[in-house]
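To the wet lab folks,

You asked to see what we're planning to order before we commit. Fair enough. Below is the target structure as tokens, and below that is the sequence we designed to fit it. If anything looks off to you, flag it before the synthesis order goes out.
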């Protein structure tokens, strides 16, 4: 009888070891990039699974050994004392041990939030910041730093910003007039679920910011807009992509102002009739923040208003992107061009499109609380656009506090069934970004001192409050999370290894 009980316990222990070894093998950290978020999660998962394995196997081994020893001494003459001691242990030790192990399995001795070792911002130290500021002080081309036309453009750009209220008021004017507020409607073709930021720039921002024969930046056309005063300095620089929904950009900025950590609900409310007006009232109750958004703060009339850029070779990828950029996504019609006589600059000291780095450096000097909001579109296109990545790089080098807003954090939850988003973000690398000109891409990447370090930090910003770290884990949730994390690790490894 004792032999049978002993052997059964040992067999159970072996089954548990074999079963959990397979799950542990899925979470093999060495298959993932060193330092990536995916690897941090895999390490956590494997440690927890090993702990679980020990907690399950230890009572089986001890009970098994006790039973086998009892079986042995039962048969040996004159060993009744050893047999009696073993019988007492066999009745008292296993229940105590099993209770302790159950508490371990339930995470009784563990912190509620998993401890993932993610690299935090500021690991670069302050040297890079001072280098950037020096770079601003000495403007390009070896010109005199005192009020050169380059610096004047940088100063003018950095003094522009708009409030969330102004952004929402503009949003209310888009589309066929949806309410009787009396505000003049612009861009009747606007559809919140189709129109991109590029569409809105062509269809609304450029026409609205035309001033007679000239043109201004949209923010300079707002009532009460003044030249550079400290009150118009932005609190937050916004990175976004023009090819994504304009709705997502507005929703992300509004969500940031409302201190939300995702923007899906805001986007849904914005798309509803009178939703924007209700949000406007909520935003007015919050402290007002000023945002720098290129579409509104750059004078489009000094650049793109009268053209779509030179036509690439027909049939190429660039051509289809160029063609999509000149058409209204909703109607398919080519946008009309602006006939203003504002001088155009695509390069040099007067150009407003090549000064993001200098502007960020200058703003950091003048606005100590400056933040960087990364408004990630629902298709995560932002991370593959070289110019958006360039902005991420700049704020990383300047140690600006970054906020990454996603449509929804649920896709990164450990319980999420679909792993596509997780795989994409947990193995993200800027090396995969694209630009229409390869030399632009290489120039942007060359500015990153250590691409790997940059990727790791970006993932830490994205997952710092998401994924495993979003919710406290209690009881058997930990075991569930560990097994799911192992599955995610295997999936991310497969995705990064490629077909
Ligand atoms: Zn114009």
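Sequence we intend to order:
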């Amino acid at each position: 009888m004792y032999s049978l009980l002993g052997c059964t316990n040992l067999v159970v222990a072996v089954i548990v070891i074999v079963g959990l070894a397979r799950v542990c093998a899925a979470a093999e950290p060495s298959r993932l990039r060193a330092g990536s978020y995916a690897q941090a999660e895999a390490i956590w998962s494997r440690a927890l699974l090993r702990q679980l394995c020990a907690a399950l196997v230890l009572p089986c081994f001890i009970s098994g050994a006790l039973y086998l020893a009892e079986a042995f001494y039962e048969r040996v003459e004159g060993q009744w004392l050893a047999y009696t001691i073993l019988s007492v242990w066999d009745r008292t030790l296993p229940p105590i041990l099993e209770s302790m192990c159950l508490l371990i399995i339930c995470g009784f001795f563990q912190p509620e939030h998993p401890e993932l070792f993610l690299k935090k911002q500021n690991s670069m130290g302050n040297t890079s910041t001072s280098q950037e500021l020096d770079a601003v002080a000495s403007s390009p081309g070896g010109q005199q730093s005192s009020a050169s036309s380059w610096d004047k453009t940088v100063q003018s750009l950095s003094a522009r910003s708009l409030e969330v209220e102004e952004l929402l008021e503009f949003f209310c004017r888009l589309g066929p007039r949806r309410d009787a507020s009396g505000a003049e409607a612009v861009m009747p073709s606007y559809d919140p679920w189709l129109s991109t930021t590029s569409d809105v720039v062509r269809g609304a921002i450029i026409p609205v910011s035309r001033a007679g024969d000239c043109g201004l930046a949209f923010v300079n056309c707002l009532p009460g807009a003044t030249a550079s005063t400290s009150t118009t300095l932005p609190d937050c620089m916004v990175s976004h992509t023009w090819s994504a929904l304009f709705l997502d950009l507005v929703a992300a900025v509004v969500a940031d102002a409302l201190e939300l950590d995702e923007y899906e609900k805001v986007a849904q409310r914005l798309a509803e009739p009178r939703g924007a007006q209700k949000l406007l009232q909520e935003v007015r109750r919050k402290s007002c923040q000023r945002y720098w958004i290129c579409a509104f703060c750059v004078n489009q009339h000094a650049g793109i208003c009268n053209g779509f850029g030179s036509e690439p070779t027909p049939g190429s990828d660039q051509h289809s992107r160029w063609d999509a950029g000149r058409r209204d996504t909703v109607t398919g019609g080519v946008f009309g061009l602006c006939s203003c006589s504002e001088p155009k600059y695509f390069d040099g000291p007067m150009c407003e499109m090549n000064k993001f780095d200098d502007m960020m450096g200058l703003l950091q000097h003048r606005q100590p609380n400056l933040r960087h909001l990364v408004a990630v579109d629902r298709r995560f296109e932002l991370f593959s656009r070289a110019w958006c990545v360039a902005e991420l790089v700049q704020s990383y080098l300047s140690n600006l506090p970054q906020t990454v807003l996603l449509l929804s954090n649920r896709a990164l939850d450990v319980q999420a069934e679909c792993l596509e988003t997780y795989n994409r973000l947990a193995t993200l690398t800027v090396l995969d970004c694209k630009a229409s000109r390869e030399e632009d891409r290489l120039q942007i990447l060359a500015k990153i001192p250590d691409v790997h370090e940059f990727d790791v930090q970006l993932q830490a910003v994205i997952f710092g409050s998401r994924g495993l770290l979003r919710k406290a884990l209690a009881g058997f949730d930990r075991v569930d999370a560990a097994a799911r994390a192992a599955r995610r690790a295997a999936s991310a490894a497969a995705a990064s290894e490629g077909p």
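Structural context that might help your review: Residues 37-75 form the longest helix (39 residues). DSSP finds 18 helices and seven strands in the chain.

Thanks,
Computational group
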